[in-house]
Design goal:
Structural class: mainly alpha
CATH superfamily: Flagellar protein FliS
Shape: globular
Strand content: under 5%
Helix content: over 70%
CATH architecture: Up-down Bundle
Number of helices: 5
CATH class: Mainly Alpha
Number of strands: 0
Radius of gyration: 16 Å
């Protein structure tokens, strides 16, 4: 079937042509998506699916943390956020605790929304 292949090509194109800021936004969206899937899996008592999706969210948080440019003072704030979210994801995975995932998801939404606003402001200023 052509449709799934076309969708994969579109997604690859979207990633390859995205700016660093847009890629970061995609990573936040991915972490949120995986947390949502894990929450549903916990509700359905699907331990393996919950585990796999929490690990995916953890991997994204770890990647974001590893790619911080610490020459900027705000990077330490992001470091603290990512360390906290990473710890909470480990705890959520061990306990299969939906409430912890909801908390992480709330923080991810907040950081993502702030990131989107920074992107919008920079676009208006013409710095992106």
């Amino acid at each position: 079937m052509v449709l799934p292949n076309a969708y994969a090509q579109y997604n690859n194109s979207k990633i390859l042509t995205a700016s660093p800021a847009e890629l970061t936004l995609m990573l936040y969206d991915g972490a949120i998506k995986f947390c949502n899937i894990a929450e549903e899996a916990i509700e359905q008592k699907d331990v393996e699916k919950a585990h796999n999706n929490i690990i995916k969210a953890q991997n994204i948080i770890d990647y974001l943390r590893q790619t911080l440019d610490m020459k900027y003072p705000v990077a330490q704030d992001f470091e603290n956020i990512y360390v906290y979210l990473g710890r909470r994801l480990v705890e959520a995975n061990i306990k299969k605790d939906k409430e912890i995932l909801e908390e992480v998801n709330t923080h991810l939404h907040s950081v993502r929304d702030t990131w989107k606003e920074v992107m919008r402001i920079n676009r208006e200023k013409g710095t992106v």
